Amino acid sequence: MSPRRTLLRGTLAAVLCAAVLPAWGTPGRDRRNPAPPGAEAATAAYMEAVRTDRRALRAFLHALPKGADLHNHLGGAASTELLVDLAARDGLCIEKERLRAVPPPCPAGGRPAADVHADRAFHRHLVRAWSMQDFRPGRESGHDHFFATFEKFEPVEIGHMGRLLSEVADRAAAQHQFYLETMVTHATAGVAALAARAGFDPDLGRLRGRLLAGDGLGRLVARARAAMDRSAAEFRAASRCGTRRPRPGCGLEIRFITQVDRSAAPEQVFTELLLGFELARRDRRFVSVNLVSPEDGAVALRDYGLHMRMLHRLHAWYPRVPVTLHAGELVPGLVGPEDLRSHIRQAVLTGHAQRIGHGVDIGWEDAPRELLETMAARRILVEIPLVSNAQILGVAGRRHPFALYREHGVPVALATDDAGVERSDITAEYERAVTAHRLGYRALKDLARTSLEYGFLPGRSLWRDRGGFVLAEPCARERPGGPGPRAACAALLAGSAKAAVQWKQEVAFARFEERVARLPGAVRW
């Protein structure tokens, strides 16, 4: 490779320092991605110049402000190395056949997780079992290997939520994200016990009354909030928040989504959903609910319509709690044709989802064009984890509906899903958007802005409306990255958590573009 095609990689300073970056020649204009004026134009042109240089593109995209991660499972987001290390610290054992972490004493053939420190082959073996590292489809599909990882490290995840969050938040902040919504599970044993006592009743109003009576659910809410308090303390300690040397994640805005196991019995699913809605009503740290576990599971398929009806009733009781749902994480062959026809539609129309995750099977839904038009009109966002969809479903490139959603005006945002299990990160998602879907710089910028706009942070938006990124009136005459905002705009930012993180990103974009525009050879239109 010639010096002209060389880029030093590393920190943001290394990526964007004029002293170490090459003087790229003038690239040809990309008619699909016309360059806007000024520093933004120079940045767009620079990205086109490095589009085919994998290492240079990766460095550019790593430094790019990337909004929010709205589809993130905390346990699956943490690095496998951290999970293995915590298993060793906790004195857990590893089963011989299933490679699952279990409490001591070690079962026959098992061995202490702490052996990973002296046995690197054992460490590598465990990392491969607990993630997609080095995975090659064979007797086991990507789908099956991926979903089998979670039960293997679940005992580790349960006791260290704050420590996991510290690592995940650091990684998001280091990649220039400003907001994280991560999915967590609460007090499963207590939920199961309460659900079993209540039993299932098809009259969901009566069932809700039974669960709320006697403060059984209230105790679960209190327990979940107390657990979050402990996790928050663990997070602050691990991240050194409030000290002279805080870790990057301390500055990240974070909220939580209650994840509900859709493979459980109906009474437990409803109880977990009700707990999630009550938490979102009572505690600002919790913003939504979601259904998790494989959408193609036998119980998930059987009860899909029932779950949507549950959400319909819960929406009537808790209209201010937004819903995001896994829907359409399916492909032909994984399920029969009947199960491809309506999951996204039911999530939107019956389950009142304001966002859906994955949405891969949209092309097999009944009347897909009509559904796309409905989603565009209602501004239903699709959370798209491109790496996850490739690994689990084998859907990538032109076979992925990412472009289809965009062509029909459906808002989309890139997300990671389970970056630790995937051995990936948010930068890789943006890289796929560039290399596989040919997006230009302005489109990436819109994706980052969209992710913050559709987050469930409270408060007024920085933008005038969701039809475009025009600053709302209080800030219409301000210039992010310039002098501090005047009184009216400052008041908006002070009174709105959403507008505040959006402004933070706009300032970051301004500084990012200014640095790129100063590079030797950067093109100015």
From TrEMBL:
A Pfam cross-reference name: A_deaminase
Enzyme Commission number(s) from the entry: 3.5.4.4
Xref: SUPFAM superfamilies: Metallo-dependent hydrolases
One annotated GO biological process: hypoxanthine salvage
One GO cellular component term noted in the UniProt record for this chain: cytosol
Domain Adenosine deaminase: 247-458
Gene3D superfamilies: Metal-dependent hydrolases
Keyword entries, A-Z: Hydrolase, Metal-binding, Zinc
Cofactor(s) demanded: Zn(2+)
Gene Ontology molecular function: any one: metal ion binding
Family recorded in the similarity comment: Belongs to the metallo-dependent hydrolases superfamily. Adenosine and AMP deaminases family.
UniProt-recorded name of the protein: adenosine deaminase
Organismal lineage: Bacteria, Bacillati, Actinomycetota, Actinomycetes, Kitasatosporales
